Amino acid sequence: MMNQLKETAAFLEAKGVNDPVFGIILGTGLGDVLNHISIIKTFDYSEIPHFPVSTVEFHKGKLVYGELNGIKLLVMQGRFHLYEGYSMQQITYPVRVMKLLGIQFLLMSNAAGGINKTFKKGDLVLIDDHINLQNGSPLTGPNIDELGPRFPDMSYPYSRELNQLLIKAASELNTTLKEGVYASVTGPNLETRAEYRYLHRIGADMVGMSTVPEVIVANHMSLPCAAVSVITDECDPDNLKPIDITEIIEVAGKADKKLAHLFLNMIADITRRSMNAI
Ligand code: HPA
């Protein structure tokens, strides 16, 4: 695995991907960040050696290398999901590659169902913690000591510093940013009423089919990460309406601008801070 990771990183470096500071993984229907950065180079996942290939037709599979205020970014438009049949190791492969390429921060977005009854469609929710219900970890199997320890700590899986900066960015933008616990499930089916009740009881505020594997791998490598959910449906078991994926994508699309501004404002803030520190 380590050799493959190095081959993939070397391929991208040879194509000009140098010194990215941020890695960004954009969730379903959430691509607006790309409209605000200068794009230097775009790679289809299918042309990157050892990358898994995205199969769900509405998930675009592109790795974009770009720049914002002189800072280099790597943006994944479309991620890999367990329900597509990939292993946890495949899903998290790009995160490891981005870390080898030098990213210092990982930002993620996703579409999620709102379990917390105060969450409404279109809300942005900062993930404060998670519950892994995906039945496994990307770290099973021999540990890659070069990347991190056998038993990584998960007491604060989402960087407290990055979360504070996202809260600050939201207040500067007059955007409401709620906070909550994200439960990850395998999917692709949505949940039953009994499952939504169960998720509520175990302390989940929202539920989705992604993000947690990437966060585990980031923590393994001591890569600070943060993630924001867009609430695309309200999962009230006593008043559950059937949802369809086109509606989820539509709701995500409406919140996309807000989310992009939040990320970009926060990246600009970190950039200013690091410039001042030099
Ligand atoms: N459940 C699981 N994943 C989701 C949901 C949901 O209700 N909404 C968006 N992604």
Q: What is this structure's SSE topology?
A:
Elements: H1 2-14, E1 22-26, E2 38-44, E3 62-68, E4 71-77, H2 88-100, E5 105-114, E6 124-132, H3 160-172, E7 177-184, H4 193-201, E8 206-208, H5 212-220, E9 225-234, H6 245-277
Parallel strand pairs: 1-4, 1-5, 5-9, 6-7, 7-8
Antiparallel strand pairs: 2-3, 3-4, 5-8, 6-9
Folded structure, characterized:
The chain has one domain: 3-Layer(aba) Sandwich (Rossmann fold). It has 6 helices and 9 strands, in the order αββββαββαβαβαβα. The protein has a 5-stranded mixed barrel with strand order 5-8-7-6-9. The chain is globular, with a radius of gyration of 18 Å. Hypoxanthine binds next to strand 5, strand 8 and strand 9.
Alpha carbon gap, first and last residue: 36 Å
Order of strands across the widest beta sheet?
5-8-7-6-9
Helix content: 25-40%
By DSSP (H or I, 4+ residues per run), the number of helices equals 6
CATH superfamily: Nucleoside phosphorylase domain
Just name the CATH architecture.
Answer: 3-Layer(aba) Sandwich
Radius of gyration over C-alpha positions, nearest whole angstrom: 18 Å
The residue-averaged pLDDT reads 93
Number of domains: 1
The coarse silhouette is globular
Estimate the strand proportion: 15-25%
Reading the helices and strands in chain order gives HEEEEHEEHEHEHEH
User: From the helix content, strand content and strand pairing, which structural class follows?
Assistant: alpha/beta
CATH topology: Rossmann fold
List its traits:
Rossmann fold; 32% helix; 278 residues; single chain; alpha/beta; globular; five-stranded mixed barrel; binds hypoxanthine
